[in-house]
Design goal:
By secondary structure, the protein is of the alpha+beta class. Bound molecules: flavin-adenine dinucleotide (FAD).
Length: about 425
């Protein structure tokens, strides 16, 4: 039974909008700090970007040359997640493979950046790499092992949701925040539209919009202009586990340079463009062809494996971009925006980041909520192993909450 101690109870009620990984981790963090939590999700839990991402547990190696701080955070959070959510991870490791000469030349800078970020990267002989990964391109020139892994996106989020529900958080799927009420410069409550279309006014003392690529729309409910850019990316899955480790190109981050094994599938991704809206995002034929050819470069024959699925999801980039190039220049870091000086004290927006660092994102947002309420409570989410994702449905049924759990059904086209 999952029963961590609540050190002190607070009267404040906090609404978390968004039932993806970030909202799930935040609902748990706030509940563990003793707050009354209401989480609302307009679709099924994880039906946004969370249920459609690539599924890489980032050691941070990918980011080490460009941004040591992000890389270090990924490594730290990887270790925490391995401790608290092993049921949602495959800790398989990863190999960065140099296939071209310029990629081989990148190895020394890559390894030293990883080591500076606390990531135990080490060069291994290509012959050794090909023993564990016989499908790896035989023309590979250098190989570097890193502690990457695979995340089950649904199970990780569902484990956090189950933990939140176990501590009394009210979780409502198919419930959209459609209105935000402010008064006297601070947040007062909001309007929810439930699965039956009926609207209900609710009061709360704080609101965190963890609505990812939808954060702009949710902000506009309070008259706020949120700097977020939906940046869709496509992934392609073929049947068969062509590698056991995560395979990446030994090069600065680019498109189609990561192959993630997910149980019986191999998933190549991704791409990046910008979009005006996170709704209705589909992969293009060109993206699929491009990704299949990039898969062939890492693992010859990738494109001949039985095609399983292609899908796309929108990154909630924390910044504004008017072009694809500007979108690429936006940091992959996350941000917690405090709307206190915009007439909505007590409202925060949590955007950007990665699924790997969802717990750290939640910690920062919850710290801001605590500071606003003047109720300092430490974050303790790294201390307790999470309950199984399997228990989510039980908690939801027990609480009479609306909707079903993230583990119960996958969104159409979602990642395996
Ligand atoms: C192509 C791609 C590949 C990626 N690969 C990886 C990877 O391999 N590893 C990794 O660590 N990260 C990866 N990421 C990043 C990761 O997917 C995201 O950082 C993460 O899923 C964002 O989670 P979130 O909870 O912030 O957003 P979401 O999962 O999008 O959750 C926001 C939720 O808010 C809901 N919502 C919107 N409006 C409202 C409203 N008014 N009321 C109630 N609910 C609302 C939406 O329905 C949605 O479910 C990838 C992202 C993309 C796009």
């Amino acid at each position: 039974m999952f029963d961590p101690p609540i050190l002190s109870r607070h009267d404040a009620r906090i609404c978390v909008a968004g039932g993806g990984g970030s909202g799930a981790a935040l609902a748990y963090d706030l509940a563990l700090r003793g707050f009354s939590v209401l989480l609302v999700e307009k679709g099924e839990f994880t039906s946004g970007t969370t249920g459609r991402h690539h599924g890489q547990l980032h050691s941070g190696a990918r980011y080490a040359v460009g941004d040591r701080a992000i890389a270090r955070e990924c490594m730290e959070e990887t270790l925490v997640l391995r401790r608290i959510a092993p049921q949602a991870l495959e800790y398989n490791g990863g190999i960065f493979a140099a296939i071209r000469d310029d990629e081989a030349d990148y190895a020394p800078a890559f390894i030293s950046a990883c080591l500076e970020a606390g990531i135990p990267a080490r060069e291994i002989p290509v012959s050794e790499a090909r023993v564990s990964e016989p499908a790896l391109n035989p023309r590979t020139k250098r190989t570097v092992w890193v502690p990457d892994g695979t995340i089950d996106a649904f199970r990780l989020a569902a484990s956090f949701l189950a933990a939140a529900a176990a501590l009394g958080a009210e979780l409502r799927a198919f419930t959209e925040l459609v209105g935000i009420e402010t008064g006297g410069g601070r947040i007062r409550g909001g309007t929810l539209r439930g699965p039956d279309g009926r609207e209900e006014r609710v009061s709360f003392d704080g609101l965190v919009s963890a609505t990812g690529a939808w954060a702009g729309r949710v902000g506009s409910l309070a008259g706020l202009d949120i700097p977020v850019t939906p940046a869709p990316g496509t992934m392609v899955a073929v049947r068969g586990r062509l590698s056991d480790l995560v395979l990446s190109r030994l090069a600065p981050p680019g498109d189609g340079d990561i192959l993630v094994p997910q149980r019986g599938l191999s998933v190549i991704g991704s791409t990046q463009r910008r979009a005006d809206s996170p709704e209705g995002i589909l992969p293009t034929k060109e993206e699929i062809e491009f990704l299949l050819s990039r898969g062939d470069e890492l693992v010859p024959g990738f494109s001949s494996a039985p095609f399983h699925a292609a899908w796309a999801a929108a990154r909630p980039l924390a910044g504004r971009a008017d072009s694809d190039a500007e979108g690429r220049a936006i940091s992959r870091d996350f941000a917690v925006l405090d709307h206190g000086d915009e007439g909505a004290a007590g409202m925060f927006t949590l955007i950007g980041g990665k699924a790997t660092v969802l717990r750290a994102m939640a910690r920062k947002a919850a710290d801001e909520v605590c500071a606003f309420l003047g109720d300092p409570e430490p974050c303790r989410t790294a201390e307790y192993p999470l309950p199984s994702w399997r228990s989510l449905d039980g908690y939801l049924e027990g609480s009479g909450a609306t909707g079903r759990g993230a583990g119960s059904r996958r969104p159409e086209g979602g990642a395996a």
